[in-house]
Every structure is written in C-alpha cells, then in structure tokens.
Amino acid sequence: MTPMVSIGSFAFPEPSTYSATTSTVVDSGRNVEGYVIGSVIRDDIAKIELGWTFISASNWASILAQFSPARGGSFYNNVTFYLQDTNSWVTRQMYVSDRTAAVFLRNKDGSIKGYQNAGLSLVEV
What we know:
By secondary structure, this protein is mostly beta strands. The chain is built from 1 helix and 7 strands, in the order ββββαβββ.
C-alpha cells in the first residue's frame, strides 16, 4: 500500500487524520469604488496537515528528523502525498510548519514513551 506521505524512502506512519488545503496567492487591493482589483500570483499551492492520536516517541523523533538539518534532514523536502485537486499522488517540494504533541506516557526512567495528538503541517514551497 502506498503511504499517505513519504519523503524519499522514508514513509510516515499512517496518520489518524489527514487534511488538505489548496491555496491561491493573490496580489489585490480595492479601488475607490470598493471593488477588488487583483492578480493571481500563484495558484494550487498545497498544504497538508497530519495528525496521530498516539505515536511512539521514536516514531515522532524520526518524523521530525526529516526536517532538521542537524539530524540529517532538510528544511525543504520532496514530499510525496495524496493531492485532493488531482485525486492522485504527487511529489512537491515542501517545508514543515507547526509541530505539536502532548506527552502521553513516560517510562520509569522519566524518558518519554509516546505522545498523543501529535501533528504537523507541510506547506508547498
């Protein structure tokens, strides 16, 4: 089965939630009559949001490492994902935006075992 999201050979664990946004960037303003005057700068920019009800600390760290140059990743990545506009898989250059997670379980030594409601957003460059 094709993973919902991957970067090269790294497949993200199956998310509990997956939502997609398609945006159009417009340079616009209003004229003296109050009508919008504008030009489309770029259309069909993809943003995807992934969420996990529960994810192990090691899986979460592996995902986040993909976007960290200090841990062998890159700020910009070629991400393969399911595009709502075309009803197909595409690969586009994206960056990671907000990343959130709530500690769910700790090991006896105090280390984190897993997170709940972990999520991130990927935005097309």
